[in-house]
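seq as requested:
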Amino acid sequence: MRPSLNPGTLVRLATETLRAPRPTFAALRSLDLPRQALWEALLLVVVISVILAETGNLVLVAFSGEGPDAPQFLSPFAFGAIQLFILALSVLLIDRIGRAMGGHGRIEDAILAVTWLQFVMICLQIVQTLFLFTLPGIAGLILIGGLILFLYLLTAFVAELHGFESQARVFAMIFFVMMGVALGLSFILTLLGVTVPR
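struct tokens:
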């Protein structure tokens, strides 16, 4: 019988993930969730992330005020579409490159890894949003810590789902893949004539 994945259980598992990412992710894999449910969960975390991002944007606008110097943000639809594309691409890269390197993970494992990582980041995003209301300076530090945590958990999840022993090699692989994707997207945007606003 599968355990009930209610909000309390999910938060507890997110906390355990910070302490022991590989064993916690292995426990989640043992649930053997169907692929359709995993894709639906991935879509759900994108929607939640967009809502939280919009909340944070409203706070920033309230602090900075209106005018030409006010921060500019993507529309919720555009932000959600970009995030969904990036997460789906991450699933494909984790699955294909991991197996090409000798891993034995399944596509369902890759979806679970990306979805669960995004959920943990959402929990951190909630904490950051709360600090935006009280101590905005600390919210910036949480953002930096979140980036480090993201790379740490992603490395642990990929190592666990593909059965790799060396997390250092997994991290190096992730780093070079991310650099390659960034360069590739930059090249494509250049060909399309898209420039970054200054």
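The chain has seven helices and no strands.
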